[in-house]
Structure formats: structure tokens, C-alpha cells
Design a protein that fits this description.
Oligomer: single chain
Radius of gyration: 26 Å
Structural class: alpha+beta
Strand order of the largest sheet: 1-2-3-4
Order of helices and strands: HHEEEEEE
Distance between the termini: 104 Å
CATH class of the domain at 30-96: Alpha Beta
Number of helices: 2
Strand content: 25-35%
CATH topology of the domain at 30-96: Nuclear Transport Factor 2, Chain: A
Shape: elongated
Length: 136
């Protein structure tokens, strides 16, 4: 005499296996890193570098801190860019919030260990000037 298989038992086993797989993050609905990185490089080449006559190529990519860090070779220079895991946002740079230095637009460290209440001296001659020096 054959046992009758209860559909509820089969469904419970299937859902149990799916639940265990989801715990270990087997299912990834955000897209593959390779595809997302390829789309980002295509965007950079078509919209940012096409006028300059240079092309970006992927050196490496890895998921780190919730984003995809992609190392690019742009005309012989190595540059890191960051892409969101869903592929909708491109970040040309990352600024670590744990660093105690304030970085100027030139990328040079200007002030280190600034505390609240510190008095900083700033003059017009210490900044980048746009226009002629003898402007009134």
C-alpha cells in the first residue's frame, strides 16, 4: 500500500529550504557585479570621456562597505570609482568619515586635528584665485 504524500508537508519542506538559502544570501536580486560595473564603465566612456578621446577599462572590482568599488585605468592612470549595488548611482570618489583631516578641493591636507572652538586664520591670498590678480 503506497503512502499518500501530503501536499502541505512538501510545501513546508520547499519553503524551509528556500528560507535557509535566503539566510545565507544565496539569492541576489541586485544584479551581478560584472554587469553593474560594465554599465558604469559604458556610462563613463559615453558621457564623460568621449569628448576627450580616452577610454576607461576595468582593472578590478569588489563589493565593499555596501557599494561596488571599481578600479579603472583611464589613459594610463588608475582611478577608483564607486557604484551602488543596484547600479543606479555612480560616485567618483569616497571620503572616509573616520579621517580627522579636512581635505581641500586640491586634495591636499589643509588642517589636521581641528577642534571645536579653534580659531583658524584665512586670508584671500591663501586661496585659489579666479581672474586676474590685479582685479579691483
Amino acid at each position: 500500500m503506497a503512502k499518500k504524500i501530503n501536499m502541505w508537508q512538501v510545501a513546508a519542506v520547499v519553503f524551509g529550504v528556500l528560507f535557509l538559502l535566503s539566510i545565507f544570501n544565496v539569492f541576489s536580486f541586485s544584479g551581478s557585479t560584472t554587469k553593474i560595473t560594465g554599465n558604469a564603465v559604458s556610462y563613463i566612456n559615453e558621457n564623460l570621456l568621449s569628448q576627450q578621446g580616452v577610454e576607461a577599462t576595468v582593472v578590478s572590482s569588489e563589493k565593499t562597505n555596501g557599494v561596488i568599488r571599481t578600479t579603472l585605468n583611464i589613459d594610463g592612470q588608475i582611478q577608483d570609482v564607486y557604484v551602488s549595488t543596484d547600479g543606479t548611482l555612480l560616485f567618483p570618489a569616497a571620503i572616509p568619515l573616520t579621517d580627522s583631516q579636512v581635505i581641500a578641493a586640491t586634495g591636499a591636507a589643509v588642517v589636521s586635528q581641528v577642534s571645536p572652538g579653534d580659531i583658524l586664520e584665512v586670508s584671500a591670498s591663501s586661496g585659489v584665485s579666479i581672474g586676474p590678480e590685479d582685479a579691483e
